[in-house]
Amino acid sequence: MLHVTCQMLIMKVVIILPTYNEKGNIEKIIPYLEEKIFPEIKNHEMHILVADDSSPDGTANEVKTLMHKWKNIHLNNGQKKGLGAAYIRAMKYAIETLNADIMFEMDADGQHDPHKIHEFLEKIDSGYDMAIGTRYSNGGSIPKNWPLIRKAFSVIGNIIVKSILMRFSIHDWTGGYRALRREVFLKEKDELINFKGYTFQVSFLHKAVRDGFKIAEVPFHFSDRTLGNSKIVPAEYIVDLLKYVIGVRLKEIAAGSFGKFLVVGGFGFLINAVVLRILVEGYNWAPAFANLVGAACAIFSNFNFNNLWTFGERKAKTIFSYFSKLIQFYATSAFGVIFIQTGTIFLGDTFIGRKYYFLFFLIGTGFLLIWNFTMYSRVIWRKKKK
Ligand code: GDD
Ligand code: MN
Questions:
Q1: What digits encode the pLDDT tens for the residues 259-311?
Q2: Could you tell me if 271 and 297 are in contact, meaning their C-beta atoms sit under 8 angstroms apart?
Q3: 133 lines ligand 1 (CB under 6 A)
Q4: Computed over its alpha carbons, how large is the radius of gyration of the chain?
Q5: Pocket of ligand 1, candidates 16, 20, 171: which has the most ligand atoms within 8 Å of its Cβ, to mutate?
Q6: Angstrom distance (rounded) from CA 118 to CA 379
Q7: For ligand 1, is residue 111 a contact (CB within 6 Å)?
Q8: pTM, to two decimals
Q9: Quick one: fold of 2-245?
Q10: Would you state the pLDDT for residue 360?
Q11: Which pLDDT does position 163 carry in this prediction?
């Protein structure tokens, strides 16, 4: 931070442009930023850092030529190890050598509208730690001329990531247009070493969300590439991405109160079975009614043990909170059993065949457990914000 004006601190902003064979693009984007965008930004000191991986097309030489004309351009050269590796290297350089306060991630190929830069900065100025560009919320979009399959790939990919991570407030997990304070990178950098490819984006954002950094969204129109080719290898990207989100979610679940939750649920299942048998065999009740009573007893037991034990440190403290949690608990359980567990059985039965109904029951129960646990830990017994 260099100078102090009336209220606003002038911060050093470094726009990182990763490049691999982007000679034609870099000679357009840099002059555009310098001549059209930076003069409009009065309250910060703007810099460009090109993170090139020894591109065979001579991107770096082009950058060196531009560096004669503009003194706020920097070059960080390295070996090609993937997009994530290039960002990690460049962010370290931006902080250690250039003393950046704020860094941008931005594609060098013109797909990220530079006229949005000031909106990202406004978010950071107003106190956010990170601002992420989003293509999937109001005001954002992906190229209209993309073939349907590519659009579907992009949209569905994001929905899958959101659903597995169970974090729906972020609309664009995979995008690469972002601004962040140096503190966010410094906090997460050691954990990012393993994400050398495009998974860097999801893993970095996920860790920032986990650690409670304040994150804002900036919708933007993702335009189509006009020059050169995308460097993504789709199959490799999908596999890496799924590995990351599934792995990290399983770890999150295992690290939480999941064990206690399973014990409580197992005990509830026993209560259900015992009540069912007593009523049917001892009192001649119809099994369906007997099961309803059994299930109601089980849910009541599950609620109280979860409240006192699984999530004991966040338990209901007032009678109002107790009943409010109880109602949410019944609603969550009902939704889960009717739509998630039974819905899975129904879909399997309809589209694949009755022969496998028990398999679908098991899969549906697996989904149900994830749903219940997530709702319990994130909604009903959520951690209070400090
Ligand atoms: N230094 C370096 N090293 N740069 C790279 C590498 C690499 O290994 N791979 C890609 N880049 C650069 C490209 O030259 C380009 O400037 C930028 O990173 C984005 O790469 P593209 O290949 O154009 O990515 P895309 O347009 O297909 O993908 C966009 O969407 C992805 C997922 O939604 C980007 O915005 C990605 O960042 C985003 O993850
Ligand atoms: Mn691109």
A1: 899 999 999 999 999 999 999 999 998 988 888 899 889 999 999 999 999 99
A2: yes
A3: no
A4: 26
A5: 20
A6: 35
A7: yes
A8: 0.77
A9: Spore Coat Polysaccharide Biosynthesis Protein SpsA; Chain A (3.90.550)
A10: 86
A11: 86
Distance CA 200, CA 133 (A): 15
Q: Which residues of the chain have pLDDT under 50?
A: 4-6
The string of DSSP letters for 244-276 reads HHHHHHHHHHHHTTHHHHHHHHHHHHHHHHHHH
Domain segments of the chain as ranges: 2-245, 257-378
Residue whose CA lies nearest to ligand 1 atom number 34: 176
Burial of residue 87 (CB within 10 Å: 0-12, 13-18, 19+) is buried
Residues 301 and 330 sit within 8 Å (Cβ to Cβ):
no
What is the rounded CA–CA span in Å between residue 32 and residue 221?
Answer: 18
For residue 363 the two structure tokens come to 């899969």
**Ligand 2 center to residue 326 CA distance, Å?**
49
Question: DSSP states of 283-310 as a string?
Answer: H---HHHHHHHHHHHHHHHHHHHIIIII
End-to-end CA distance of the chain: 28
